[in-house]
Amino acid sequence: MERTFVMIKPDAVRRKLVGEIIRRFEVRGIDIIAIKMLTVSQELAEKHYAVHQGKPFYAPLVEFVVSGPVVAMVLEADDAVRLARNMIGALKPSDAMPGTIRGDLTTDTQRNLIHGADSPETAAAEIALWFPELQEPAES
Ligand code: GTP
Ligand code: MG
Ligand 1 mean position to 52 CA, how many Å? Predict the structure, then answer.
């Protein structure tokens, strides 16, 4: 089993798509290990997107993520990082396939509803950043 981090972004909360997005993970059979709604601080947003620092979309991206509440989750499944990324769909709207969250529900590159960790290493770092209270899974 693997854990991944996903974050339902402010646009999805505003559009009342939180239930729709969580439903997709649940009916797929993915376990929700932790979940919380929060308004992100500037500091957390900057740390979360630090990899994009210096890019033209960085400042607007941070501003967008702090613009309203988000729903942060830890998901668990076999190959959870890849599974969640495939369910989320591509960043470029015209490449996001129908059947994916972005492919069904948005045409906007920035207001793209949800973030998913892009590697097991990133997932571990993001889980530690967003859920410091969460225990590491026991070795099996
Ligand atoms: P996340 O799961 O949110 O990390 O998306 P991603 O992994 O599909 O994309 P990436 O990590 O490359 O970019 C992070 C976020 O920055 C995206 O989800 C977008 O919100 C935003 N972003 C990335 N590239 C662009 C861009 O060219 N223009 C704009 N406006 N936003 C961008
Ligand atoms: Mg990314």
Answer: 9
